[in-house]
Amino acid sequence: MDRAVEVTHEAVGITLLFDTFSLESRNLLESFKNAGAAFHAAVIEDDGFLPDDVMSVYGFFLGDYREADSLPGKPLYFNQIQIPDYWRIEGDNSSAKVMDRTRERARIFFTEPTHRRQVKIVDWLDDAGQVRLSEHYNRYGAIFCHTVFNKKGQKALRKFFDVTGREMIVENFVTGDILVRWQDKDWIFRSKTDFIAFFIRCAGLEDTAVYFNSLSYPFFASQALAPNGFRDALFWHEPVGDEIPGNMQIILHDQGTRAKRVFVSRKESYDRLIALGAPSDKVKQLGYIYSFVRENKHRPHILVCTNSENVGHLTELASLMPQMHFHVAAITEMSSKLMSAGRYDNVSLYPNVKMSVLDSLFEKCDFYLDINHEGEIVDAVHRAFLNNMLIVGYEETMHNAYYTADTNTFKESEYADMADALNLTLAMPHIIDEALAMQKKAAVAAEATDYMEILHL
């Protein structure tokens, strides 16, 4: 390969390389920020809505969409999709579809939060109702990628486009080849691993330690890179089964090209690895440094966010906790069933809630009940966690168990026990602080000092 390729970034000591920008990836990114680290971050599978400070491995070769005057410069609203005359678009706050009279021609998927109806993917269907083409939109309102499917519904090709619509990357899922147009040359890579390693070179990240939280392509890329004097590391957040994952064993047995350490977020996973014989000098437990917004003030205000009328035993809880005030917010209209809960003096309802009002509710309430059936809205549980709200929920309705301590979880049939536990916090406020400590422990909250060893590389 031509070593004279021009690099376009000045390297710093650390590169965070993620498969996807998952919850765990976001938590790790935030932790390095809060630890005061200088680093680059890159995501392999870009959904088009990455934040400005996170690079896209594919998007790196597409140019800067922010500089394109021909684009909307913001996410595309669902009814702005181009469709043939006499076709129509139907949708709600979760998804939409393109209709040709009674025939469904396309399915429209929104980015989170879905109530904003901002387009992320449009799946176009053939006459048999099979997806044949996915159009991927980014946060600037542009189609930056096409995924082409064969008649069996299997991925065949993926094409990426620059800001002018030129085809810059073609990925063949059948052969595994990736063709890249870069610096007026065509580059052919026989594997995704080779392509990712090429990105690391082009981005000027060769002389950094690569930290990754997946044992797939980020690990493969670490293995493919030449040693540079830094120690790469795996940040593991998944459960561990009956044996240590094979690729992790490569690291633990000193067979990694550059990766030499494993950091494990969950205590149970760490304990399991040690029990399976992982060397304690190579495996360390390390949580996340969260950006908490405020302290809990022990106020008797409860928040529930829902897009469903099915809020488990809401009226019974209101009756059992007369000293608590319930604030129930929805980003849509509320059904008559849910509106009827407003007859209780300690229940306030907020249909079609404005974001400014919702912001004030997250500041005002010190308890969050995760008791609504169906989907989560406005990233409510995560947001409640960052606001140091005590999160209590039903096992059957929990939307993000990561941020809820087991001690704060009840079966829905045990709603009376939940009410008793919450009433006790009013009589004994120190219980709230103890429960919050358990909540943070469950989410493996860490301090900046815990990251000092890593930052010394």
What does this structure look like?
The structure is a single chain. This protein is an alpha/beta fold and 457 residues long. It has helices at 23-34, 192-202, 217-224, 246-252, 267-275, 314-320, 336-339, 355-364, 380-386, 415-427, 430-442, 452-455, and strands spanning 14-18, 39-43, 55-56, 88-91, 95-100, 103-110, 119-125, 131-137, 143-149, 155-161, 167-172, 178-182, 185-189, 209-212, 232-236, 259-264, 283-285, 301-305, 325-329, 347-350, 367-370, 390-394, 409-410. It is globular, with a radius of gyration of 25 Å. Helix content is 23%, strand content 26%. It is built from twelve helices and 23 strands. The strands form three sheets. The protein has a ten-stranded antiparallel beta sheet. Strands 3-2-1-14-15-16-17 form a seven-stranded parallel beta sheet, with helices on both faces. It has a six-stranded parallel beta sheet with strand order 20-19-18-21-22-23. A hairpin with a 2-residue loop joins strand 5 and strand 6.
Radius of gyration from the alpha-carbon trace, in angstroms: 25 Å
N-to-C terminal Cα separation, in Å?
29 Å
Whole-number average pLDDT?
93
Largest sheet: 10 strands, antiparallel
GO biological process, one term: regulation of protein stability
Protein name: UDP-N-acetylglucosamine--peptide N-acetylglucosaminyltransferase stabilizing protein GtfB
Keywords: Cell membrane, Membrane
Main location: membrane
